[in-house]
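Hey all, sorry for the wall of text incoming. These are the two entities for the joint prediction.
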Amino acid sequence: MATDGKPTLQHLNNSQSQPILWLLEELEIDYNLNLFERHTSGPKKSRAPDTLKETHPLGKSPQLITPEGRTIIERAAIAYYLIDKYDKTGRFKINPSDSNNDIIREEELISFGNASLYPALMTQLVFDLLRTQSPFFVRPFTGGIASMVNKAFLNHEIAIMIKYLDDQLEGRDYFMGTTEPTRVDFLYMWPIDLGQQSHGSSVDLDKHPRLKQWWARCKARPAWQRAMDKGNGYVFNEY
Amino acid sequence: MATDGKPTLQHLNNSQSQPILWLLEELEIDYNLNLFERHTSGPKKSRAPDTLKETHPLGKSPQLITPEGRTIIERAAIAYYLIDKYDKTGRFKINPSDSNNDIIREEELISFGNASLYPALMTQLVFDLLRTQSPFFVRPFTGGIASMVNKAFLNHEIAIMIKYLDDQLEGRDYFMGTTEPTRVDFLYMWPIDLGQQSHGSSVDLDKHPRLKQWWARCKARPAWQRAMDKGNGYVFNEY
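and here's what came out:
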């Protein structure tokens, strides 16, 4: 794929690609933006279009195609690449010599978001789909089961995790104690948005003022606003 | 907590801590091992004991307590710390100047395991629990729903992901093209073991010979065997 010296974002609406678009806007670099749309009806409703498979076998978004033609997947890797390559002044980088905000803490937070919080939120979301998307005649059963599992386990687990994240922002504007967002912030926007917007989620920022302020601080940034204008939608409660 | 100059692993049976124990054995360093056991009965059956909260508020395992008394959570962060600090000869490190196995590819693989494969496996596992652990009188409904969701979506998604991982091992003994395992291998042992051992999982290594050989190669290492001897159990199909 010709890239004319710029990186190219393969961007899907209503997806975890939106925070990558935010990062591209923060970096103030030239890039190409290819917009893809989820299926809106039929058996593939809400699924990504097959055209995303033309640039990567998994067919997911985001994908970033480098000027050299390499396709990078996974938000953590794309954000690493973009900041490493394009943030020449270190504006969005951590200070690894700060022992309260070093690379170990960055690794902990990134892994916690990906391997602990996100799977819990996904499970909660699937249970909610089970409750709302089942045929009406089995809904009394599936809804009851979804509520039972939520109450017994997931709500409690997710509440502990969200409180832990709120504690991580004690005395910090952004997760890594910097004055500008770093990779951790770009990555956490997705699970926090997902957790708030989904039906049936237990993420309630009103109970977690530091996390709520962090969220508002990120959303108020002009680059976030520009990314919303350039994207093709970012909602999760229509499925 | 006194650590007498050694790192301390807070290790839980039948958990994702086992591959960290494997890494500790590979490093051939002195360490302390504290063994914790999941509840075997009662309302907390299969849950971690509250004593794990004494060293970290989330109460999960693995936790690694450094000689300086810092508690590190999350496998990706613990493995980063251990290899960075204790692998002085670089035996378990990647070669970042190898453009086919550089840090971007490492980030992609780690994030793919944590944020894509693992949530899909967890969702499949929860559906299977729904099928097998529901009260018998609703099992015909819940089992039917679990099978429906599996067939429609999860089996297909997971099969694509496992094939992708198998492809990543083309021409490589370990994921990062090294002659010894690196952080990526230590991290992937958990989802691959989980995916194989769980009831109802669609991970079938017989269909993926490169991944099967990688798995056997890791398991045949003397350090893996020693870690199994020192741990307190590593099975997932008893819940």
